[in-house]
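User: Before I run my own analysis I want an independent prediction to cross-check against. Here's the chain; please return only the structure tokens and, at the end, one sentence I can use as a sanity check.
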Amino acid sequence: MKKGILRTLLLVVLLVLAVVLGKVIGDLCGGISFLSWLGLSAQFGLQPCTLDLAILQVTFGLLVNINVAQAILLFVAILVYSHIHIRD
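Assistant: Structure tokens:
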């Protein structure tokens, strides 16, 4: 039980680090001519939409913005996670 929780926590930490570091690297490399491709990004998802029912107002939406550096680091994080073995 404890090993499963630890592995899940490790995966979450690795993925968050990959996203944050990828964003920083993509932003920093945007000004360097031969590394500018790391900052290229794509945005996809659903634009926010509001449903107004007079007494209740609900807004739905999900936008994902990912750059090349984040995609590479997410792939590396998943590879690292699959090779880590946690002892009891």
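Sanity check: The longest strand covers residues 41-52.
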